[in-house]
Amino acid sequence: MDTDIIDFIQIEGIIMTNTPMNIGEYLLKKLKDYKIDHIFGIPGDYVVQFFDMIERSSIQQIGTTREETAGFAADAYARTNGMGAACVTYGVGGLSMINAVTAAYAEKSPLVVISGSPGINERAEEALLHHKGKDFFTQQHIYEEITVASVLLDDPFNAFNKIDRVLDEVYWHKRPGYIELPRDMVAEQGTIHQRPSTSRHNSDTETLDAALSDAIAFINQSENPVILAGAELHRYGFQDKLLRLAEEKQFPVVTTLLGKSVMPEAHPLYLGIYGGAMGRTEITTLVETSDCLIILGAFMTDVNLGIYTANLARSRCVYATSDKIRVCYATYEDVTFEDFLDGLCSSQLHKRPEANLEWVLEVAEPFSMVPKQTITVKRLFQHLNQFLCDDHTVIPDVGDCLWGASDLRLPEQTEFISQAYYTSMGFAIPAAVGVQLAKPNSRPLVIVGDGAFQMTGTELSTTIRYGLNPIILVLNNHGYGTMRPLIEGSFNDILNWRYTHLPEMLGAGRAIAVQTEGEFEIAMRAALEETKHFVLIEVILEKTDMSPALTRLAEKVSEKV
User: Fold this and answer.
1) Which of 61, 128, 213, 499 gets the highest tally of CB atoms within 10 A of its CB?
2) Rounded mean pLDDT, 218-231
3) How many other C-beta atoms are found inside a 10 Å radius of the C-beta of residue 341?
4) What is the DSSP secondary structure assignment for residue 329, as one 8-state letter?
5) What is the pLDDT at residue 509?
């Protein structure tokens, strides 16, 4: 990491700052070292001093409408930028973010949570300070369960060390970290700290050689190897390594749903998404008949595995993630994911002859729009394919937005950001804020159901405040459409909002309601031309209309429910 923003003097292994610096200033400078240019959150009296420091720094504070959406926005920013940060007050702020931070932990997103808290000198026994729960340490104890590292900055002497440790753990493990900053510590001078520990983690050489030797031998003796690529390739920035391995060795590639877009989807070696019985039969057959499945950076979750309908025997898998390297039944400790992947790329793996994969490829018939035909979910996503561009980032929310979007064929540079494992409704619109701030040249294309929109749609006001211009497709099927095929009841219904009136309420933006394919065509063209503010397209659907993927998934889930 860069350390030139701080003058350092090294004395017997210890580094001292040449320029006096307080704890708040040091934390901001370290965040900037990790390329964090925005911090999402809402102020409160326990953290307002630090907010004032943010405002006077080169990092921009981004205000959201609630703390959970600040967490979602920072999570998406982290996925796009490499690391992200959110800052909230104690208790009512920090505890409101728990769901978003848990999602980031589950899906490996490097999010730094900074929470103000009562001053150390205020924490007298039985002191009844506002926002306090069971005791002064309740919030930190909770965060210990959903972060890779958590600290309370209660001592100026070791505060810098603690900050370095949390940021280092977040950087390497791609999971959230928690920093609690008491309000009487913000301006305290920190004088001594160790050299920041962020550096390359090295594998044990002998174990790495053994893992690669066994993996290469196993892959070379196989007849039809297939790569199953997952989200960690995106988190660690290893997409180029995947592409090199696939092209040099001519291995076909499929991805998990969470890993969608880690491989250019127009590439001839990319075949689609694997999801057990939930996915297309051809993909399932290819993967489950392969005698060597090379699983790279994939989470083996219930959704990724088609609600555990997948048939992936360990005896025919090479499995490599940041947590584990395994070849068949042998597991190798002290081997990093990057070293193992680099070893495969530079190894003597046999190049495969070009295989006939035409039977696996889905050759969609050219979409022909029928102007007066009532729009359906299936036809909507087929139609949407025609409008996707390299500068879009597709962000589907949970439900049929996600399952339907799995069938989109993305352009080469188009990213796909989703919560395809933790699946918390309401992620997509705040995520669009984080994505566009992290990647200003990309325009978010959000696909959200009416139920999820009613949870976090207020973040459209944040897009106006900061000059963002997402395109929002609200799939209005009058309730929780994912639940209807499982158990129908009035609990699946919600109030039907007048979505097209939102620009009038917010004072900016544009909204259009559509019911036919022709109306959707006109609305999408208008949305692409309007680049100043958000454009909301309400797509009015039948209650029971579902994508083919959700139909398959519902059949499997209903068996368990």
Assistant:
1) 499
2) 94
3) 22
4) T
5) 97
- Taking only the tens place, the pLDDT of each residue in 334-357 is 999 999 999 999 988 988 887 778
* Closest by Cα among 502, 482, 470 to 547: 482
Beta bridge partners, 395, equal 446
> Of 539, 285, 270, 547, which is closest to residue 410 (Cα–Cα)?
270
The residues pairing with 10 across neighbouring beta strands, listed in sequence order, are 15
Contacts of 374 (CB under 8 A, 6+ apart): 515, 516, 517
SS3 393: strand
**Residue ranges in 187-273 assigned as alpha helix (H):** 205-220, 232-235, 239-249
φ, ψ for residue 306 (rounded to 5)?
Answer: 60, 45
pLDDT at 15 over 50: no
Look up tokens 């295989």; give the residue.
Answer: 355
**Other Cβ atoms closer than 10 A to 491:** 10
Type of residue at 126: E
Nearest to 116 by CA among 205, 29, 31, 23: 23
3-state helix/strand/coil string of 22-49: EHHHHHHHHHHHCCCCEEEECCCCCCHH
Structure tokens at 134: 């069971």
**In terms of Cα–Cα distance, which of 176, 40, 36 is closest to 108?**
176
Compute how many other C-beta atoms are within 10 angstroms of the C-beta atom of residue 188: 17
The number of beta carbons lying within 10 Å of the beta carbon of residue 541 is 22
Q: Looking at residue 10, what is its pLDDT?
A: 37
pLDDT per position as a tens digit, 41-96 = 999 999 999 999 999 999 999 999 999 999 999 999 999 999 999 999 999 999 99
The answer, as to whether pTM is greater than 0.85, is yes
